[in-house]
TrEMBL record:
Keyword annotations from UniProtKB, A to Z: DNA-binding, Transcription, Transcription regulation
Segments forming domain HTH gntR-type: 11-78
Originating organism: Streptomyces hyaluromycini
Descriptive protein name: GntR family transcriptional regulator
Taxon lineage: Bacteria, Bacillati, Actinomycetota, Actinomycetes, Kitasatosporales
SMART domains assigned: HTH_GNTR (SM00345), UTRA (SM00866)
One Pfam family cited in the UniProt record for this chain: GntR
InterPro entries, per the entry: Bact_HTH_transcr_reg, Chorismate_lyase_/UTRA_dom_sf, Tscrpt_reg_HTH_GntR, UTRA, WH-like_DNA-bd_sf, WH_DNA-bd_sf
Length: 253
């Protein structure tokens, strides 16, 4: 990178620095290359480390950089292109669903989830944990909350433990007639458990997609899916499905 000091500009210093760094990433660095440490970068550009940190965080949010455990800050590869989510009229776990069930347990959900499901504050629900891997890289983690009365025929024999239990819960859920879905997307920070599953550092930017599955006039299941913001660009098509794209030159199938 060059050694030109930043000049006075109308926008915040970190924003101007982000632009300078982005140009350097395009011209001087390759995918996977490790950036110099914060002290060296701050000295080179004549800014405080706090300003540098803000610029790096913004570039990470935009998918240009990745923070990797035990490695440092590296230049990120292009965003992957793979369709995720379910069809507007399909339950989780239906044919063609690319999510991989990992486990399921019966437990009391967070208060906000209980409110959305209209269950009692201390009423246990089935919590199915699923993950999504693309090109050998983890891209999303999901917690699917299902009230017991959405899967009334489920028995202990049908649902042992681990992935088999998760699949049994999803099979029973598909007995209901799905009336529709609604989704919301918000920017968030990776919690410790999500960060570990997604191979990110805690606090890394993520996109959280919350989906309500409706049946019999109520919320029959609630999905909270966490996507890596450095990997995923989410778009919503006519079916309501979520897609992840590469850059503008590559589309998901």
């Amino acid at each position: 990178m060059g050694t030109t000091q930043l000049e006075s500009v109308p926008e915040p210093k970190y924003w101007h620095l982000k632009t300078v760094l982005s140009e350097a990433l395009d011209s001087e660095f390759s995918v996977g290359e490790i950036l110099p440490n914060e002290r060296d970068l701050a000295a080179r550009f004549g800014v405080a480390r706090a300003t540098l940190r803000q610029a790096l965080e913004q570039l990470e949010l935009e998918g240009r950089l990745q923070r990797r455990r035990g490695v440092g800050t590296t230049v990120a590869p292009p965003r992957m292109g793979v369709a995720v989510g379910t069809d507007e009229h399909a339950w989780p776990g239906a044919s063609g669903d690319a999510w991989q069930p990992a486990d399921s347990m019966l437990a009391v959900p967070p208060a906000a989830v209980a409110t959305a499901l209209e269950t009692g504050a201390e009423e246990p629900v089935h919590i199915v944990r699923r993950s999504r891997v693309s090109h050998g890289q983890p891209v999303a983690a999901e917690l699917l909350y299902i009230p017991a009365d959405s899967v009334p025929e489920l028995t202990a024999i049908d649902a042992p433990s681990g992935a088999p239990r998760a699949r049994a819960v999803l099979r029973e859920l598909q007995r209901l007639e799905l009336e529709g879905q609604d989704r919301a997307v918000e920017l968030g920070s990776a919690r410790a458990d999500d960060a570990k599953e997604l191979d990110r550092l805690p606090g890394a930017p993520v996109l959280v997609v919350t989906t309500r599955f409706l049946a019999a006039g109520r919320t029959a299941a609630l999905s909270v899916a966490t996507y890596r913001a450095d990997t995923c660009r989410l778009t919503f098509g006519d079916t309501g499905g979520v897609e992840i794209h590469h850059g503008p030159e590559r589309q998901a199938s």
